[in-house]
Amino acid sequence: xxxxxxxxxxxxxxxxxxxxxxxxxxxxxxxxxxxxxxxxxxxxxxxxxxxxxxxxxxxxxxxxxxxxxxxxxxxxxxxxxxxxxxxxxxxxxxxxxxxxxxxxxxxxxxxxxxxxxxxxxxxxxxxxxxxxxxxxxxxxxxxxxxxxxxxxxxxxxxxxxxxxxxxxxxxxxxxxxxxxxxxxxxxxxxxxxxxxxxxxxxxxxxxxxxxxxxxxxxxxxxxxxxxxxxxxxxxxxxxxxxxxxxxxxxxxxxxxxxxxxxxxxxxxxxxxxxxxxxxxxxxxxxxxxxxxxxxxxxxxxxxxxxxxxxxxxxxxxxxxxxxxxxxxxxxxxxxxxxxxxxxxxxxxxxxxxxxxxxxxxxxxxxxxxxxxxxxxxxxxxxxxxxxxxxxxxxxxxxxxxxxxxxxxxxxxxxxx
Length: 416
Prior knowledge:
Elements: H1 4-10, H2 25-48, E1 53-59, E2 61-62, E3 70-82, E4 85-88, E5 94-99, E6 106-107, E7 112-116, H3 119-161, H4 167-206, E8 209-211, E9 216-221, E10 228-229, E11 239-240, E12 244-247, E13 252-259, E14 271-276, E15 279-296, E16 301-308, E17 321-329, E18 341-344, E19 349-351, E20 354-361, E21 364-369, E22 371-376, E23 379-384, E24 391-394, E25 404-408, H5 411-415
Parallel strand pairs: 1-25, 10-11
Antiparallel strand pairs: 1-24, 2-18, 3-13, 3-17, 4-12, 5-7, 5-10, 6-9, 7-8, 9-12, 13-16, 14-15, 14-17, 15-16, 18-23, 19-20, 20-21, 20-24, 21-25, 22-23
């Protein structure tokens, strides 16, 4: 039978017993959790604090901002062209003596641009002048002979009437007079031929001087003193065919190519708004000059000529890239309506079933969901999701995520 003393003894702690074996399972779990945290921190640093993914970017261009009462029904790209441009050359083949123009120089109509060596032309002119002088001296000699023959014929006529000389002598005097008259006419015609030859020789000398056919600006200087120039390229690569190229800056216009599917929206005289690639904030008003009645079957486009109301502005030069918005009267737009933007098609990506683009700001790539509009050549119209002037990533990789750290590639690398 258990007594109270035995019960009390059973409650005592035996401090001489060895401790139970400890478990290491909890230690390994704790180390694994710490490793996960470290990897997460390192990954976050690589994404947000490291160099990031190198990407190429392009700028979104605002379109359709036509102003109150007007709306852009079509946008097209093209280039500034000159309707009046000439490569000026000499009319004759010769060696250049001096060139009096430089690129960017303004010239007036008739201004001397260059001179050729006139040695041959001067020699031909001197020969023609000598031939004219010889013909004129012959005229004087024949005129003196004719005067004497006319007097002799008149004297013999009176004597023949009085039967003092024979009829044969009188007729011989008349024949001599008539022959001298014919000789004088021939000599005068020869003198006129020599005079015409001298005038042609003068033109030959003048042809060694190259003049501007109209007022404009020199955009190219093609020849140097000592070179041979010719209106024909008979000399191959060693013969120049021109002195320089002149452009009438008042004849500048924009030539764009409009897709066949949209050409019906364009009408002659239609108001336009042109934005040059070099001056994105400058909107140049203008009008449609003409629609060229021919299509390009390879590109399925039709050329349209667009005039500019800023003629003579030095900022507009040939071959500049331009974007033209064709305008028509439209209903007043809502106060909160925003113009669309145009971005390269390469900036559009798919994430799930959504059209998206990545905007670069402060070294971070931000995902934007887009509402797309028309396709304009190699560009896409974005109706919502982007604003003009924002930088978008071109050809974004599949691994690029919202908030990822990126580095913008240099312009040279982007072009490659």
